[in-house]
Amino acid sequence: MNDDSRSRIMSKVRGSCAGNEAAVIDQAREALGSAPSAALPHTDTCIAFMTNVLRNQGTLDVAPDRSAAVKMIAQYVYQHYRSHRLVAGNDPRLAAMPWRDGGVLPRFGELEAGEQIALSYAQWGVAETGATVFLSGKHNPSRNNFLPEHHVVLVDADSLLPDLETLWQRVNASMAQGDRPRGINCVAGPSSTGDIEGQIVYGAHGPRAWHVVLLGEVSAEQSDTARALHAGE
Amino acid sequence: MEQHSQHFKENAARALADASAVAQRDILALFTPLMREAAVSEFGDFAALRDHVKKMRQHTLDNLDYYLARFELEATNNGNRIHYAETAEDMNSIVLDICQQHGARKVAKGKSMVTEETGLNDFLQRGGMEVLETDLGEYIVQQAGETPSHIVGPALHKTQQQIREQFLENHDLGERDLESIGDLVGEARTVLRDHFLEADVGIIGSNALIAENGYSMLVTNEGNGDLCANLPSVLIICTTLDRVLPRAEDATAIQRLLVRSATGQPQTCYTSFYSGPRRAQDADGPLETHIVLLDGQRTDILASDYSEMLRCIRCGSCLNHCPIFAATGGHSYGWVYPGPMGSVLTPLLTSLEASEALPNACTSCGRCEEVCPSAIPLPDMLRDLRHEQSVQKITPASWRNGLRLHAWIATRPRLYQALTGIGISLMHRLGGKKGGFSKLPLASGWTSKRDFPAPQGETFMRQYRRRSQSNER
Ligand code: SF4
How far is A165 from chain B (nearest CA, A)? Predict the structure, then answer.
């Protein structure tokens, strides 16, 4: 760090500020309250999440249990690549999946150039944005979220959060335990670009497709409502 | 970046002469506001969000010393190296130094208007680096040897056909059609993929720096910024010190405003927060991360009457809603930042003299302030800049004298009404039959494009007086 530049800049900044005590500043900030969040498409968090995943151009499967999830993933992979291979992060939850039930052959680790499909286990799903959230770490290589052609994401129905404030409460709580992840990636759709004549094209630099498998107790009525809400726009 | 703002009028005349480019800009000017409008109305209480963010940003700027120090502390604890750059040149040298220390050859860059401002690419290339922009729009303009025309969509001035020809000429990939926009995107993806994998250094910008935890927020759709942030072994974040926000939830509030205002999406495909380098237990990520904080006149703006401009979140909404931007296009402004925000920022970041035309490139319609998510009083600032130009005698003498004459007459109501009365009745007599003038002295700029309508014969004040008198009777 160049100390001279730093002190010159800091002293100029200080010259324009009131120089209040930290406690006064913190109090003023708290008094501002919180920002309103976006209106959800449905009051049920799970329906709202599924609707927004579909609106984000994601595809969606709902699996009641892990065996069903594996079969759905197998079918998705086979449908696109006529193969049962994929790369999964070293997440113990992924290692514990009953892969044989679907005949899937995962390789655990980081995606290498040329490999097409990555499977990640999301920490949370956020209804407000329809995003799946990943914390990078030993179990979660960030590149697996950005390098594949197809990104398949497992997310537990009981890890769905209503809005971004709740997401940060969770992240902050885990940071308070001393765990500050290097990267927090909120993924809400296949990569896209509108840079040529404003026309949206999917598959810019990141994955061309984003497939979410929601795992847990989700009723047929909930999925139908989400699909109807999405179709009705 | 080299500045050409002093040629705004010539640039604008040239831009207006290109009929197909004008038509393309007209379409964008029609449809980008509609996209924003749809996203804003779906949000719920957007006005409350805007008001909250305005207050929160102002609070941050009022206490920037506190939040900047906190960010520095947290980001350093996260393992980043923080660099302070007083000038554009300082930022460029710091970045080149880091690259050279690592023996780097290849640099992959995410979109960053700050580095456009400092001319980083040229500087690194002169220093022997191979620098490739990876945002599709930036990649297209870099390859064409051009500059961005819009802060969000840098290549929106180019047609599909122009980009097709450019790719066929520049990419050695043999015979191919490249018929659709999807084909063009696919080709850029293929060409850039290797570059991501081979790059020694990744450079990105930042949408927000979070003081409470030292994270940097990155909001993108393409995923290129995240590839730059995760694949190369060195990551450099180039940004300015006014990007600091108190808490993560404040960054979230900005995220909600930014994407809706910029592209009309409810959220972008990727919103990422990066704390620093790879830790011992991490599977991947850069081994070293640097954050270069540029002042580049921001502290002067902070101390000036224009400090509210630092609330700008670079959404581009004021560009999309500005009739001057729509008519003349971004390149006419002759520097990094076009449209209303550019007409305020460019004089502040460069000089009033070099940007003389920009604060005048305004119809005072007020749309920019209406749609600005940060509620920046852009029209007031443009007027204040014009005033300063006049005080400093930068405005041409003919204009100043004309305005002085106008002010002298306008502050004498009787004289004003008498003179306008004579003028209006004269014009009515000369042009009344035809209904308009195809030529008028001192108004050739108007009449070269359309007729000037002939007045009805009487001024408003005279009619008003006559009617009030007859009502009294
Ligand atoms: S001035 Fe306002 S509308 Fe314009 S880019 Fe900045 S934040 Fe967006």
Answer: 6
Which residues does chain A have within 8 Å of residue B66's beta carbon, measured at their own beta carbons?
A: 17, 20, 22, 25
Same domain, A85 and A109: yes
Look-up of token digits 């995003």: A131
**Residues of chain B under the 70 pLDDT cut:** 473
State whether A25 and A51 are in the same domain.
Answer: no
**Chain position carrying tokens 């009525």:** A221
- Do residues A161 and A110 both lie within one domain? yes
Model confidence at A114: pLDDT above 90? no
Rounded to the nearest angstrom, the minimum Cα separation between B58 and chain A is 11
Contact A39 B42 (CB under 8 A): yes
Residue A175, domain extent:
42-231
What was the pLDDT predicted at A98?
A: 96
Is residue B461 within 8 A of residue B410, CB to CB? The reply is no
Q: Which of B207, B341, B345 has most ligand 1 atoms within 8 Å of its beta carbon, as the pocket-test mutant? A: B341
pLDDT-derived band at A202, boundaries 50, 70, 90: very high
Nearest to B88 by CA among B317, B294, B339: B294
List residues near ligand 1 (CB under 6 A).
B 261, 312-318, 341, 372-374, 376, 378
Q: Are residues A132 and A151 in the same domain?
A: yes
Number of domains in chain A: 2
- B90: phi > 0 → left, psi -120 to 50 → alpha, else beta; which? alpha
Question: In this structure, which CATH number among 3.40.50.2300, 3.30.160.670, 3.40.50.10420, 3.30.70.20 belongs to the domain B45-299?
Answer: 3.40.50.10420
CA gap B30, B440 in Å, rounded: 32
* Residue B372: C-alpha distances to residues B98, B114, B271 (Å): 37, 20, 21
Q: How far is the CA of B69 from the centre of ligand 1 (A)?
A: 26
pLDDT at B470: 85
Q: B434 Cβ partners below 8 Å, 6+ apart?
A: B454
Domain with CATH 3.40.50.10420 in chain B: 45-299
**Do A71 and A27 share a structural domain?**
no
The tens digit of pLDDT for each residue in A152-189 reads: 999 999 999 999 999 999 999 988 888 899 999 999 99
- At A2, the pLDDT band (50, 70, 90 cuts) reads low
